[in-house]
Amino acid sequence: MTYTIKQVSEMMSLPVSTIRYYDKMGLIPFLEKNESGYRIFKEQDISMLRIIECFKNTGMSISEMQQYVEMVKRGDESLEERYQLFVRRNATVRKTTRNN
């Protein structure tokens, strides 16, 4: 199944402009466009947007998210590296939460 940017916006309660920004920043790596240039969202793209939103909620920077996307593009060889990123992010969030 595929979705338009408007459908994804409504589904995720994200402004269309935010989704376009994430795409411009390279955070939706496998997003396709049709012959007219319109974005075509698949389930994997929506999953990536959910991950991005989770990262955003932890205070992760765009550049760190871009590093994560580069790991995803490398495929299964980066699974351990991605896991370690999640572990570090979890520790950062826990530390920040304890200090507040």
The CATH architecture designation is Orthogonal Bundle
Distance between the termini: 43 Å
CATH domain class: Mainly Alpha
H/E series = HHEEHHH
Estimated radius of gyration: 15 Å
Query: From the helix content, strand content and strand pairing, which structural class follows?
Result: mainly alpha
How many β strands by DSSP?
Answer: 2
Work out the strand percent: under 5%
Helix run count: 5
Keywords summarizing the entry:
Multidrug-efflux Transporter Regulator, Chain: A, Domain 2; two-stranded antiparallel sheet; 100 residues; 5 helices; mainly alpha
Q: How would you summarize what this structure contains?
A:
With 100 residues, this protein is mainly alpha-helical.
Structural account:
With 100 residues, the protein is mainly alpha-helical. It has one domain: Orthogonal Bundle (Multidrug-efflux Transporter Regulator, Chain: A, Domain 2), CATH 1.10.1660. Helices cover 66% and strands 4% of the residues. Strands 1-2 form a two-stranded antiparallel ribbon. Strand 1 and strand 2 form a beta hairpin.
How are the SSEs ordered, and which strands pair?
Layout: H1 5-12, H2 16-24, E1 32-33, E2 39-40, H3 43-57, H4 62-74, H5 79-99
Antiparallel strand pairs: 1-2
